[in-house]
Each structure stands twice: as structure tokens, then as C-alpha cells.
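Can't attach files on this board, so I'm pasting raw text. These are the components:
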Amino acid sequence: MSTPDPIEAYLKELRRRLRWRRGGRRMAEELEDHLRELAGDDQHRGLGPAEARRIAVAQVGPPSAVVRRRRYIRPLAAAAAIGVIAVVATGLFAIHGDHRAPTGALPPKLVSREMVALREVNSMYHRRATLAEATRFVNFPLYRPEDALGSDSTIAAVWESHPGGPEVTLLYTSALLVTVQRWHPRTGTPIAGLTKLAKEFRSSGGGFEWIAGSPAAMVPSGPPVPILGYGTPLDQFGQPASVWMVKNGIFITIQRWGPHTLPGAIAAARCLRAVPLTGGI
Amino acid sequence: MRSEALKGHLDMLLLAMLEESPAHGYLIARRLEQASAGVFELAEGTMYPALHRLERRGMVSTETIVVDGRRRRVYTLTDAGREALLGEITEWRRFSMGVARTIEAIG
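---
Top answer:
C-alpha cells for the assembled complex are below.
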């Protein structure tokens, strides 16, 4: 008498427990894929087929545990909920219209550990602020990349500081760090300062150009550096690529983190055209 | 770490495993095993209900592909998932730092 295949036995029991359940078939499919891949890998490591299957089943855990962890949606309740949501959503759409921004290739995102590091390192130098506070502080519409970069949008953190002049820094989940200020120690007159800065970085791919009628210096990204949070090394990641530009008398630094950084920073800088930077800080 | 201790953190860990790139369940489990150096004793099957819950909440999206004749779901972190992960990590760091300081204070 042959021993039953443990994976087949497992799946049979799982399907029995999941029958009539919404999503049960999908769950069984995913677990079958998982079990077969697990057993296959163990066989490649030298286990016999039967042993590999037995270990795979043990590693996945009993069907009862899988079913217990699942909160199944009852079909009728789900249909009712979807109906309610659809009615509400239709109403909201009618009121607010479609605010989705134009689609297009979006720049890369920061990974979360970088976001956390950036948040913490900025918190050490700046005072955390709300977006409303920052808006009052700078007294002009804050740069919002979602206006031109689709869903590249959410402001993750806002800081204020006074490093010789008022300054607001915005961290977006889109990997942009935008600093707006009216004073900067290195620039002097905007064009002279920016061209000087561009010369410094020309050998490594930097440069000077006019972006949407505004002088701008490009600074390429640098090698990874340790970022400290509360005195503890959090991570290492590259210096961001930056576009330093002066627009309407306001000094704006756009830093782009992650791969392909300089094109992303330049693209973001071009988007400033869409934003009416009126008044001043 | 026993699976009970993982309750409440599993969602964050699963989202974190998807940050690098999209992955199917098996690969997520292997990443988790590698990243945690085997600290978590997780029945891997229990990961799927959590993944489905994350999908319902819009934290991950899925795509079905066929491999070796089997249907395979590949999970991708959404913008909302990335946001949630960022918040969870920040909260966790604050919490764990508080616990560490408390333990240090009592010697």
C-alpha cells in the first residue's frame, strides 16, 4: 500500500475546509504553489521527494491554522457593502469631479528605511511643522509635485528652520526633498552663485542651465554616506542629486533620492512652472 | 520569536518584504526568513490570509501569472502600502527605543 502524497493530502483537507468560502479557491491555489516550490527547493538541496514534501507541509502549518487566520467575507454582506460604497463614491465623484493628475512615468520612490532616516536626520536640525503652519510661514502656494507628476504626491513631513533666513523643507514620498528659502550662504547673487556651484560639479556631471526661465545649477548624486539618527547609524545611502534654482526671488533646492536621481530632480524642477510662486517668504 | 508575538507586526513585515520588488508568497516567506535570520517561527500558510487582507485594504496589488502550469499571485506594494509601512516603521522605532531605554533605566 503506497503512502499518500503529503501535499495532496494537505490540499485536499484545505479545500474541504475552504469550500463555500469566498476566496477559498485562490487560497488553495497559492498554498499549492507555495508547497510545490518549497518541496522542489528542498529536493534541490538533496532531500528525497517524500521527505521534502513532508517538510514542506510542516513548514506551511496545518490547514486549520490557515483557515483560522482568514476572516472570510460573506458574499451577501460583501455585495451589500459594495453597493453602499458604490453609491457613496458616485456621489463624491459628482461633487468633487475627477482630480486624477495626468498619467506618465513616475520617478522612483524612496524605500521606507531611507524615508525614516531622512525624517529623523531632518528632525535634528529643523522644527517639525504641519503643512498648514508651513503654508502660513512661506505665504505662497507650496510646491506640490502631484500637480504635474501624477500620483507622485504625498507630503510625508514638513520642517521649519531659520538657518540665517526662514526655510521650509518638505519631504515627499516620491523621493523628493524640497527646500524653499530666501537666503543661502553660498550663492551671493543668484546667477553668479549658481554658475560657480555648477562649475564645482561639472567634472562629475553637474552643470548650469536655465529651467523654465530660471537659473539653475545641477548637482549630481554622490557616494553613499552614513545617516545618523539619535546618534545611531541608521543607514547609508547616496547623496541626492539636486537642482538649485532661483525663481521669483526664492531659492529652491530640489533633492532627488534613489536611482536616476538627476533627471528626476530636473523633471521636478520643470514642474515648478505649473505653480504660481507669487509673493515671497 | 513565537507566532503569537508576531501578531500585530506581521502586516508591517510583509509590506517591508515587498519594498525591494514585487514577489509571490513563497519568495516573501524566503525574504522574511533571510531578513530575520530565522528568528520568526511563522507557519508560512498563515501569511496568505494577511496578504489577502492587505490587498483588500489597498496596501498591495496582485497580478496572476502562470508558472509550471500553476497560477501564481505576485504581490506589489502600492503607494498606500508604502505610506502605511513608513508610518509603521517610524512608530516601531519609537516604541522599541522607548522599551530599550526603559530596560536600561531599570538596569
